[in-house]
Amino acid sequence: MAEKKRGDSALEQKWPKVKPHRLRIRIVAACHLREVTPKEVAAEERLPASTVRHYFNGLEREGWIHVCRREPVSNGIRYWYTADRPKIIGDREFEDMSEQERYETSEGVLMHYLDICKLALETGTLDARADSHLSHTLVYLDRDTWKDVQEDLGLCLERTLEKTAEAEVRLRESGEEPIPTVIHLGGFEVPRSVMEGIKVPQG
Known about the structure:
The chain is mainly alpha-helical. The chain has helices at 20-33, 38-45, 49-62, 91-95, 99-123, 143-174, 192-195, and strands spanning 66-73, 76-82. It has 7 helices and 2 strands.
């Protein structure tokens, strides 16, 4: 049997290393924005389609996403997925994650938020309403105030979720046209270099 020479066939494709938590969040995020196929996400993330399909199937079993339609194609059936309800990672779940898992989770959340901001800016919805809100503030905090602010943000999130549930009930009853809205909460430590050259209140 003749030996196969190196270079006789195409080089095996080298795929990026899969980041499980980031990929899961990116899939769910994409499904919240639109109907999406595993093939599309595989192309965007430069991952094997079989790997991405594995994560889609897992998320479907867990109830994060579901098949919304099927499309016959030459080699079988193409499945389109969507997501109806958000899921929130709580403090305890986040604490139980490894440092790498936390990084991938935060990266996925931020990329999803930036995608939304970009789309809103490009389509003009970002500034469509005069009473919309967009702000961020750089400050120096002591430990006690840091803790207080985090608790306030948690309470604000809980209250916001309550309000959205109330809105869902009223919308179903009234038939009113809903306002597609993103509500973003964030309070995290930043590198000191971010503060350089910026006048920041220090108390």
